[in-house]
Amino acid sequence: MKNQILLIITLFTVFNVTFSQNTSQVFSNEGRDWYVSKNTGSGQLGTKERPAKDLGNILHHLKANDRIHIAEGVYLSKGARGSDEINVPVKIYGGYNATFSKRDPWGEHKSIFTGTNEYMKLTTPRIYIRTDQQRESNGQKSMGSEIIVDGIIIDNGPRNRYHTDKNLAIRRMANPKTGKNPSPESGGIVIVGSKYTNIAVLNCVVMNTAPTEGAISVRVFEGGKGVIQNNFTINNTGYGIHARTGYMGTDATKLPVFKIKHNTSLFSWKHDAIASYGGDALAFDQNLIATVENNTLGFGHMGGIYNKGAKLTMINNLFTGNGKYDYKEINDKMAVADILDEAMHIDPNSDGNQSMMIKISVAERWANIYGNRKEISRAEVDAAVTVSNSGANQLRSMLGLNVQGGAVAMDAEIFLPLITIDEALPAGKFPWQGMGCNIPTYVAK
């Protein structure tokens, strides 16, 4: 336990950033502290004595290197639009009590970022930080500094559209007649940095999101570092965690370097009921280097790790309950026992990765729903297609084009069913034999 507590404490000092060397002038701003409290905030001063009511209300004030402290409460963004976009490097810390004197982000003082499902509300990522398009006065792109998101809970459940409002299956199309938005096809925390920008996502929970890519998605560019540590993703489509690269060069010294440690990623769904993509707990782009250590990666509809060409060192990771493989490298699928023998992009010093049965402390209500779902395969759908002998199809046949089939129901009755925060959090509060995330513990500065 002592080592686990020390691990969380040291997250306050993730990077040793030297602004003078690789940080441009715009991103060298000293920054200020902002305070946000749903329950006690008002106005836009954003001080500890007079906090703002929502992060969305002060986005236009933020400058590079500002530090934002979020108190307990449920946050919908400005105008309940359900998405916050920030275009400068900032540090966001959630889970404070009302006086900003204590932090307990997964317990007594949850900072919950969510939204509503109303027609024309935003469907972009709930927290979207993108700095790669900012420029200096000379027109050159800004670079350097650091981005941190720490201690935030993202719950997209209220933003999703569910079939017949039963919370059992999401729908990706809007319904203007009923004033319903599509379920957002975006992640919960999406960060795209600039060159030489270091990025950290720490102690966050992301659930009920329906992206094509990552529920937590971090894209690091040339010369930058990424840390993804002690996070919990549960019940998302796409990938639970997605380590991405913005560097396409050949200089190995400039490759983005990631450390991905002590995360738990469970119940990652395919993009949709018949999709052949998504459904992995952890995914990697090529052109990056990563250390993957002490993570629990379980119950991916497809698998545990999908590696598109990254150079990985894998130490003491737990794989459990994955549908088709534990590790996939390009098109090669492997069980955990075969990774060291068969993988091409794994450091030979990797060790301690294992598979075992675990008990997950998820609520019985949701577990029963998940266990009773019916899988739909693309082969079954294709076999069910019937060709219509319409005039249009006769013409298409004459032109040598494929004929068009009739409509086939492709939506499952149970797909990404809503799980509540209270139902989900117990599954992320304790690791299995040291593998996976743990309750964040902070010591007052």
- How do the strands line up in the largest sheet? 1-2-5-8-11-14-17-20-23
Radius of gyration: 22 Å
**Number of discrete helical segments:** 7
From the 3D structure, determine the CATH topology.
Pectate Lyase C-like
**Span between N and C termini?**
20 Å
The pLDDT mean sits at 89
Give the helix level as a range of percent: under 10%
- Major beta-sheet overview: 9 strands, parallel
Determine the structural class based on helices, strands and strand pairing: mainly beta
- Uncertain segments: 1-12, 381-401, 403-410
Question: Any idea what the CATH architecture is?
Answer: 3 Solenoid
CATH class reads Mainly Beta
* Silhouette: globular
State the domain count: 1
Sheet-strand content, in percent, reads: 25-35%
Tell me the number of strands: 27
Task: Give a short overview.
The protein is mainly beta and 445 residues long. Helices cover 10% and strands 27% of the residues.
Describe it for me?
The protein is mainly beta and 445 residues long. The protein has a single domain (2-371, 415-428), classed as 3 Solenoid (Pectate Lyase C-like), CATH 2.160.20. It has 7 helices and 27 strands. The chain has helices at 2-9, 19-22, 339-342, 364-371, 378-384, 391-398, 421-424, and strands at 33-36, 67-71, 73-75, 84-86, 91-96, 111-113, 127-130, 146-150, 153-155, 189-192, 198-202, 205-207, 214-220, 225-229, 232-237, 239-245, 257-261, 264-269, 280-284, 289-293, 296-298, 303-307, 311-315, 318-320, 325-329, 332-334, 354-355. A 9-stranded parallel β-sheet has the order 1-2-5-8-11-14-17-20-23, with no helix packed on it. The protein has a 9-stranded parallel β-sheet with strand order 3-6-9-12-15-18-21-24-27, with no helix packed on it. A 9-stranded mixed β-sheet has the order 4-7-10-13-16-19-22-25-26, with no helix packed on it. It is globular, with a radius of gyration of 22 Å. The model is unreliable at 1-12, 381-401 and 403-410 (pLDDT under 50).
